[in-house]
Specification:
Distance between the termini: 66 Å
Shape: elongated
CATH class of the domain at 42-123: Alpha Beta
Strand order of the largest sheet: 4-3-2-5-6
Order of helices and strands: HEEEEHEHEE
Length: 124
């Protein structure tokens, strides 16, 4: 006795699709959060940028990163030397960083000739 198969068994298809969905959602959260863990400050109004800015990151431990690459203390001017002065510079500073450290980084960037400097925050 042979039975003709006239329907598609969708249960295995649904199982595979759910597994793929879990994999995609898990990897998407790692990609969107960035490489360097920084607890950003919160603000009610934030701007949306369309171009790709130069990103300087200050961690809570005081480490300095330029476009997700660690740079030593005093190496910021060397890292920014090849960037055009019209570029937008975004500073991602951890909210517990000392204000003096943040101000010194912004002063150094301004001293190099960059005029468009902004602070990255998270919308409330």
């Amino acid at each position: 006795m042979q039975r003709d198969i006239d329907q598609i068994n969708v249960i295995p298809l649904v199982d595979v699709m759910l597994v793929l969905l879990v994999i995609v959602l898990t990897t998407a959260t790692f990609i969107s959060s960035g490489q360097i863990p920084v607890n950003l400050a919160k603000a009610k109004e934030v701007g949306d940028r369309k171009d790709a800015p130069v990103v300087i990151t200050l961690t809570a431990e005081g480490a300095l990163f330029f476009n997700d690459h660690a740079i030593p203390a005093g190496g910021l001017s060397g890292a920014l030397a090849s960037e055009p002065r019209e570029s937008t510079v975004v500073v991602r500073a951890d909210k517990v960083i000392q204000l003096e450290r943040f101000v010194s980084v912004v002063d150094e960037v301004r001293g190099l000739g960059f005029q468009q400097i902004s602070l990255e925050v998270v919308r409330l």
